[in-house]
Amino acid sequence: DNKLGDICFSLRYVPTAGKLTVVILEAKNLKKMDVGGLSDPYVKIALMQNGKRLKKKKTSIKKCTLNPYYNESFTFEVPFEQIQ
């Protein structure tokens, strides 16, 4: 089974400001990765354009959980011309 779990996130783009905001809210039912049956999960975010990674960010690490709550916000500057 390739399923790693479920993630809840939101995307918001403000064309006038040229800002893309990604909010990582939470993850649920993550796959067990540690010997003890838990994980120390985090989320990686990559801003891509034409297959090239422009920026990358990541959330904090949540220790010993398969249902982490993050509520972390990341903002990228993305001109409107690049969104189209």
From TrEMBL:
The keyword Repeat applies. One of its GO terms (biological process) is synaptic vesicle endocytosis. Signal peptide: none annotated. GO terms for molecular function: calcium ion binding; calcium-dependent phospholipid binding; clathrin binding; phosphatidylserine binding; SNARE binding. InterPro entries: C2_dom, C2_domain_sf, Synaptotagmin. The keyword NAD does not apply. GO terms for cellular component: axon; dense core granule; plasma membrane; synaptic vesicle membrane. Keywords: Repeat. It holds the Pfam family C2. Residues 3-84 form the C2 domain. This is C2 domain-containing protein.
